[in-house]
Amino acid sequence: MSDGSSSYTGQGVLERWLLGPVSLQVMVLNRIVLGGVLFLHAASRAFELPRLYGEAGATWSPAYRAWVDAVLAPDLAAPLLALVAALAELSPEMREVVVIGLYTVLLGSSLAFASGLFTRGAGVVAVVLHMLFVTIHPFAHYGWASLVSPLVLYVVLSRAGDHLSIDAWRRRRRGLAPLPAEAPAWPMRLLQIHIAAMYFHTGFARIDDPLWLEGQALFEALARTLFTRFTFELHVWSPLLVLLTWAVFLLEPLAAIFLWVPRLRTLCALALIAMHVVLEILTNVGWWNFIMIAGLLAFLPPPWVARALPGPVPASR
Amino acid sequence: MRGRLRRGLLLLVLVGYAAIVVLAAWRHEIRPGWLDAPGAVARGLLAWAGIPPGVAVFTADSASAAEAKIVDLCLEVRVVEADGRVVRLHPDAGERCPAPQPRIWVKGEEIWLDRSAVSLRAAVAARRQELRRGQSARATRLLAEALAAHFRARAHAEGLAPERYALLWAESRVDTNTGERSERDVALMRWGPVGEGDLRVSWRPDASLLESHWPALETP
């Protein structure tokens, strides 16, 4: 299978693509960005903890939980819903203690994951607790909060903790040799497939949507104070907004294909990164753009990604 | 030999997982239904073990709460014009909306307002998927936001200077045991001008705010 005679068969190509070695740079960067996002998101809510997840808000009221069950239960993981149900059964005082404890562990584990301390274990704990808090109060989160989970798990499955991490530093201090800068490609391939599938989904979900066909989607989004960062006279910019809407309308479904075409891959990834930068400037959609840009790094030439890293994680491919 | 077998199995698992990720990304209407099976099985197992999904207790208004289903949604928009006049936008008393006061009725792909039928087809069509999936309360919140955007755009386009808007939505429910219909207001969205040419939306999940914070809207 891995000998020369089979290397040009379909299975051989697939095996090289999925199991062959690639540099760990992309996954290291994703560990830092995704772990950082989980930490900063949780930390930014520290002062809102009582209202969002505690007893000061409506989160634990039967009416709110009923609303969540009626509306969002099919979209949430059943074991987490069961865990939330168990929390709801506790006395308010006990629940407050448990929620604060879980929140503290979330902060610690996400910071440990970002900095590469006990990377795999920290990543699993961080993502489970992150999703638990999403399940407790789903209306307080944008869609990115769910998308980030599989991406974190791909990083956990990789050897992203081997470089630019506290684990690597501790290894050096013990006098051990540094770990290889390459690893089997499959966690990064899963990341790439997931990112492309996301554009496939969003691109084709709107393919017959009049709002997009008429070029009004960006106008509508910027008119909503829920999303827009700035309030300005939108009608002045209407023609530009129509053009930008149509550009995104074409770019996202095409990206699902172009990201796999070697000649177009880099250009397409750069266009998508530019789109996310503009969206980040104009709109407030949580951490969505940051995690998508981190994922798109997997489609850029490895030497470009290497430049973003301070330490010696050699680019191999 | 064992190494080859392990690599072959790993390849099989990876390709299978990748295929599921791609299939799950298809549009809802062509997405294979069996992709939802694991979730349904997990919920079935939890139910079998006596573990409830969340806290499934409707306390508001239904005799047999756990069996109550959200069956319809009604929107109501009241506008306070610059001269203080309160105008209710009520295209259709809507037999689907049992409350006596006029409501906006989400009718297919259009929302009908008073006087002229104002089509919000684009805004509503964007939410068709949610409506199809029966996630009606979420769809309504998104509809309400779309409606707010629509008013804001209209205010800009036509030089209108509406003083304040309030949008209230309600869930009507049916008790599947008794067939009894009931309704409960679940949320209020209100918005009004903050700066020049700006309409700021605030969203509160508590309809009682309508009375306590905005008495001017109570009676036309």
> Main beta sheet of chain A: strand number and arrangement?
2 strands, antiparallel
Query: In percent, how helical is the residue content of chain A?
Result: 55-70%
Beta-strand proportion of chain B:
15-25%
Number of domains of chain B: 2
Number of domains of chain A: 2
How would you describe the shape of chain B?
globular
Number of strands of chain B: 7
Low-confidence stretches of chain A: 1-5
Span of the ends, CA to CA of chain A: 22 Å
Strand content range of chain A = under 5%
Roughly what is the average pLDDT of chain B, rounded to an integer?
Answer: 50
This entry's quaternary arrangement is: heterodimer
Radius of gyration of chain A: 22 Å
Largest interface: A-B, 57 and 64 residues
Structural class of chain B: alpha+beta
Helix segment tally of chain B: 6
How would you classify the helix and strand content of chain A by structural class? mainly alpha
What is the overall pLDDT average of chain A? 85
Listing every helix as H and every strand as E from the N terminus to the C terminus, the arrangement of chain B reads: HHEEEEHHHEEEH
What is the element string of chain A, with H for helices and E for strands? HEHHHHHHHHEHHHHHHH
**What is the helix fraction of residues of chain B, given as a range?**
25-40%
Characterise the protein shown here:
The complex is a heterodimer of chains A (317) and B (220). Chain A has helices at residues 10-19, 25-43, 49-52, 62-72, 78-89, 92-115, 119-136, 144-157, 166-173, 186-205, 210-213, 217-223, 238-258, 262-282, 288-296, 302-307, and strands at residues 21-23, 182-184. With 317 residues, chain A is an all-alpha fold. Chain A folds into two domains: 19-174, no CATH class; 185-311, no CATH class. In chain A, strands 1-2 form a two-stranded antiparallel ribbon. The longest helix of chain A has 24 residues, at 92-115. Chain B is of the alpha+beta class and 220 residues long. Chain B folds into two domains: 2-48; 65-217, no CATH class. In chain B, strands 1, 2, 3, 4, 5, 6 and 7 form a seven-stranded antiparallel β-sheet that branches. In chain B, a hairpin with a 2-residue loop joins strand 3 and strand 4 (110-111). The longest helix of chain B has 23 residues, at 2-24. Chain B is globular, with a radius of gyration of 23 Å. At the A-B interface, helix 1, helix 4, helix 5, helix 10 and helix 12 of A face helix 1, helix 2, helix 3, helix 5 and strand 7 of B.
